[in-house]
Write a structure and sequence with these properties.
202 residues, mainly alpha, elongated
């Protein structure tokens, strides 16, 4: 018999999955909890049992999708066996593969950025976004520093700035794919990233 915590987690994921579809289609401002309840095939009251507001639910989408999952990747034996540049490729390619697999993620990301800029939600969502970026940047910085220690990465390079630039590539390609349906961010990063990373090698 499933444990209560397991059932709760499954129901939360059911609601978050439905909310992702609704927010991606209608946008945060236009989406309603009624819409989400209908998509999730649940009573509206059930949603409020798990999430107190639409804002809480939208916030949860990015809590579940945050880069905390990268800790598991970063510590995996398959990942640690890669060289420094391969690790960065693995992380960024993985991010775009996730976007490619779930077509809701790009419109959701743009809605999330919008929430970071609107006064009513700016403080809460900006703090979460900042934490996500800091975490991602720290992982890349560690990879580069570790690479320097073993001679895989040049020593006299601005590591923090390079890490920030790599993150900017992700955001920029997300926007390009959204506004131009001829752009495939995953294919672009796979083709172009090795050339950027080659400049980091001794």
């Amino acid at each position: 018999m499933p444990k209560v915590n397991d059932i709760k987690a499954q129901r939360e994921m059911q609601i978050v999955g439905a909310a992702k579809k609704v927010f991606a289609k209608s946008g945060y401002q236009n989406a309603t909890m009624d819409n989400v309840a209908t998509e999730a095939k649940l009573a509206k009251g059930t949603l409020y049992h798990y999430f107190k507001s639409k804002e809480d639910l939208f916030y949860a989408i990015f809590s579940y999708s945050s880069v905390s999952n990268m800790d598991l990747v970063f510590e995996s034996s398959a990942f640690t066996a890669l060289n420094s540049c391969q690790k960065i490729e693995f992380l960024l390619n993985g991010a775009f593969a996730e976007l490619e697999a779930d077509q809701n993620l790009i419109p959701l990301t743009l809605e999330y950025w919008s929430a970071c800029g609107v006064e009513a939600t700016r403080e809460r969502f900006s703090a979460q976004f900042s934490a996500m970026l800091v975490k991602f940047r720290e992982i890349i910085i560690k990879i580069l520093k570790d690479g320097q220690e073993i001679g895989e990465i040049k020593r006299d390079i601005p590591i923090s700035e390079i890490a920030s630039t790599l993150l900017a590539l992700v955001d920029g390609l997300i926007v390009q794919q959204w506004v131009d349906n001829k752009v495939n961010a995953q294919k672009i990063i796979v083709a172009a990233l090795p050339y950027y990373l080659a400049s980091l090698k001794p």
